[in-house]
Amino acid sequence: QVIHLADYRPTDFVLERVDLTFELDPTETKVEARLIFHRRPGADPAAPIVLDGDELTLSGLLFDQVEMDPSRYDATPESLTVRDLPESAPFELTITTIINPEANTQLMGLYRTSGIYCTQCEAEGFRRITYFLDRPDVLAPFTVNIIADKDANPLLLSNGNFLGGAGYGPGKHFAAWFDPHPKPSYLFALVAGDLGVVEDTFTTLSGREVVLKIYVEHGKEPRATYAMDALKRSMKWDEERFGREYDLDIFMIVAVSDFNMGAMENKGLNVFNDRYVLADPELATDADYANIEAVIAHEYFHNWTGNRITCRDWFQLCLKEGLTVYRDQEFSSDQRSRPVKRIADVRHLKSEQFPEDGGPLAHPVRPTTYREINNFYTRTVYEKGSEVTRMIATLLGKDDFKKGMDLYFDRHDGQAVTIEDFVTCFKDASGRDLTQFSLWYHQAGTPLVTASGSYDAAAGSFTLSLEQMIPATPGQQTKEPMHIPLSLALFGENGGKLEPSSVEGAEYAGEVLHLTGRTQTAVFHGIGSRPVVSINRSFSAPINLHFDQSPADLAHLARHETDHFARWQALTDLALPNLLKAARDAREGKPVVCEATFVETLLAAAADESLEPAFRAQALALPSESDIARELGGNNDPDAIHAGRQAILKQIAEAGKDVFAGLYAAMTTPDDFSPDAKSAGLRALRNTALTYLSHAEQTPARAKAAFDAADNMTDLSHALTILAHRFPDSAQTREALESFRDRFAENALVIDKWFAIQAGIPGAKTLERVRALMDNPLFKRTNPNRMRSLVGTFAFANPTGFGRADGEGYRFLADQILDIDGRNPQLAARILTSMRSWRSLEPVRADHARSALTKIEQAPDLSTDVRDIVERTLKG
Ligand code: ARG
Ligand code: ZN
């Protein structure tokens, strides 16, 4: 069944109030929902009400407190239809359902994990709890009563403010919560069980005190202090940067270990995958700390962008997600290093979203059809959605962007709105016509901008010709030219900026060039010497740029650009041709040679003490194998890409041996561990140096010594990764893997790393290792984090292992997907997206991939989630 945006219409009934009572039981939870409705004025007076359900059984139905005559309703697992309802008067339906949290392996709706009851309702999980108008444009205040066994569930939590609680018969107690802010069902949450807590308070800008609580497993409280700190910083930042204050007396976060996604922004009661809450130096890497900070902020920021203002329908998902990702990225940029954060975000966008946009699963940021909404929580909706918001900020400038955001909060508070409503606020605030710009929401595919420049010394002018092309994507064969904001600057021979006296042929203001035509020529006047041009600085637009710049010009930018993102981009542009050529040469059995300008420029950056260590670490981390595959475009051989890249790394390592030895010695951090960005940068650069040294030395000795000496998880897991990925069969690696496992066997999040590191070992032999690991007593099929760490890492991040030439990797994945799908369709569908680039493989592998996909497609009883992904992947 396909859902179309064009079919949207409001409900016939308005929901006034929701009153829920849960009698919790592991296998037979009774849910009583009292719903007050009235017919929407103007709606068909004879229309029945049709409520959504999913695997439900109705066990009672009252109309205005009186048992309802069975002739007036029909109940199926998927819906409850009630007829003969009042024409305009309010009426009350009391619906009773019995559900089984223990048996809920999909982890949608109400389920139990490690003895904790918890919920996940976005997008359509509430209908697995009770019959409801389960759509985001139906908003109402909720009262929630929870009754449960007191000993097993001392804690009874729901959204909003606590009303009260008391004993309730022998061994039981109850609690009542009221959320005054009208909300859609996807923001409902309930948690019950026995957990430890970390408490704090935050005083808002207007002086209200908010109680903050983070609930974790008993004994893990100390590991939640970093998350608490990140929460308070988020609250402060949202007040300062966006003028947004928190609006309830209490804000709670609960960490659970079985969770399908990262976290969920339920009103006043966020539920988190515990990997985005728990951290301490012994157990968490710097990347873990950064992720915790970002996800805590993201969910908190949803309180305004998502909860106070929500989506009219699920096609508008980017309204809340793209905007909230933009906000969390800005937060991290302000808390850490802006250029380094931008580099990390762009790397992520290119490695995850670009392949999606360039493959069979490509879809617009604001799609117009879907079969399974869970499959649209994508990099495109989230990360490209953030880029589109960022472009609005670039187009309007700081002040007008702020005015537009203020207008949005003002105009739409309490409403469920659309992307058009959002964009209109920026148009109204700035007076800028955003019609063409809006195509970014509607046209899928990564635009390709081709640029060429020529300098006329006699005229003192520089001419830049630009052309844009947007590739065809499924369902969109032809595209209109878009409005692409290109941050652009010209640099002179001495490295200083050249300011044009005027620019013809394109709007150029505040160093932003507006590309709006399919082709466009801009002439920069008053340019006294041949300029080196820097285009798409800070990655102002999410595009592919083809601009044929000489290695000398790129090296010039790598040294002199004032925008450090653009310096990194220049270094990457120097690296790429070398890596592409290396892959081709390795495939033909030719020797791989690295060009000198590139190596010199890279090593100069590595040794440049005026650059922050985190930046230098990013510069030294070359494009990944999948980045190279994407740039090659088709007929790809993962083994050749790997071999070519390894050869380049070795040459850089040998040429820079002294530089790396120097960095390894110099980049030390104080004994007292701190997860701050500066210390993390020192560790990142030191560990990068270690990687190169082990490429130069070709022995595991140094990595093993680093492993033995490590006193934090960043260093320890980095050393273990070098050992496993570079020297998988050495005695040192075996010993390190065993000691790591024994030391952390009790710690699920660390054991996830142990599985992931091994799943990422390059080469055809890894599949056997992965199979063996699935039989390891530490492996847990039902735990999404564990599944992602082993099967997910193998499929997404191991091109040579997963993509081995005989196709065994793809067949293995097909079997796993079918197995996972029986329990948890959402997880199965997500892991299956690892096949999205199968068409760019060389023909033999592509054939194997197609057969594996076909095997999935032909299996009986596929979930809608997996069916949707597999059919689109094969077809597109
Ligand atoms: N809204 C959540 C977040 O971005 C994610 C919910 C994901 N839901 C899903 N069905 N995949 O923070
Ligand atoms: Zn979100």
TrEMBL record:
Every Peptidase M1 membrane alanine aminopeptidase domain range: 226-437
Which Gene3D superfamilies has this protein been placed in?
A: 2.60.40.1840, 3.30.2010.30, Neutral Protease Domain 2, Peptidase M1, alanyl aminopeptidase, C-terminal domain, tricorn interacting facor f3 domain
Location of the Peptidase M1 alanyl aminopeptidase C-terminal domain: 552-875
* Annotated organism of origin: Rhizobium chutanense
| UniProt record similarity statement | Belongs to the peptidase M1 family.
Which cofactor does this sequence's record say it needs? Zn(2+)
Gene Ontology MF, one: alanyl aminopeptidase activity
The molecule here is called: Aminopeptidase N
